[in-house]
Amino acid sequence: LRCSLHESSLLCKVTRQDGYAYNAKRTPSYTDRVLWKSADGFESNLSPICYEPCPDFITSDHKPVRCAFSIKPNKAGNINMKNTNKTNRKLYMVVSGLSCTDLPVMDLEILGGSSDPYVMFMTDPKDILWHDSDKKKNGYGHGWPKTKHLSKNLNPVWKDPLLLEMNGVACYDDLAGAIMYAVVFDYDRNSGDDIIGTVQINLQRLCSSISPAEADSRSKRRPSHKTDISAPIFRNGQVYGHFKCKIEAAWVNQSEFDDSVAFLWKTDRTKR
Questions:
Q1: From start to end of 27-124, where are the E strands?
Q2: First-residue to last-residue Cα distance in the chain
Q3: What is the C-alpha to C-alpha distance for residues 46 and 73, in angstroms, rounded to an integer?
Q4: In whole angstroms, what is the distance from residue 15 CA to residue 72 CA?
Q5: What is the pLDDT of residues 115-147, one digit of tens each?
């Protein structure tokens, strides 16, 4: 929506009085704007319905703006560690072909003038991907799953696939409203790691075509759903590089975990 300011307001600031009396000798200000953004998959849930200035505001040399939005709350899923389905299968995802391009320089020139990136995957709700166990059956043990850091690389490519074990998810509807964040960090050995930026991924769209009931253990082929992700990396509304990967999701029975993981990883391992 366009704001109903007079065109001349783009050329100069206003005087401190009611209405619009413009001061041509003052440099204009571009701070009076409202920034908004929807999470991945929820773009239709938020829309602006009003955007206008405040003409009676006289204590400054610019007129603030205001807006109103129509907000449709999303349906919350049912993430519960006790969730099970009739097939006793669990949702796993394999991330492969992971790469970033045009990352910013995060280290001082004296330290190499580059970045040491790695990617950490987080979810909201937290319990979907967070693991308290120190056992490394999933490849990463305690905490959030993440890649290894690559030293001095602004266009990193991670060759090894990453396994994501989804907790408390028994069916597609349980993932309603759930978001996964691919957070790109710069590794620092002597201080806290710095966030380069984040990519949002709607979890429901990663497994929209599969269900636990379709994963028949008698079938030699496990039904899975592949999704190509290609998105800008954002931090504070600014773009800091580009993110790409492939994510393959499947419902896997715990008793056949090893065979199923081998199936999901087969393509990437064969290439290498």
A1: 46-53, 65-71, 89-101, 117-124
A2: 51
A3: 9
A4: 39
A5: 999 999 999 999 899 987 655 554 556 789 999
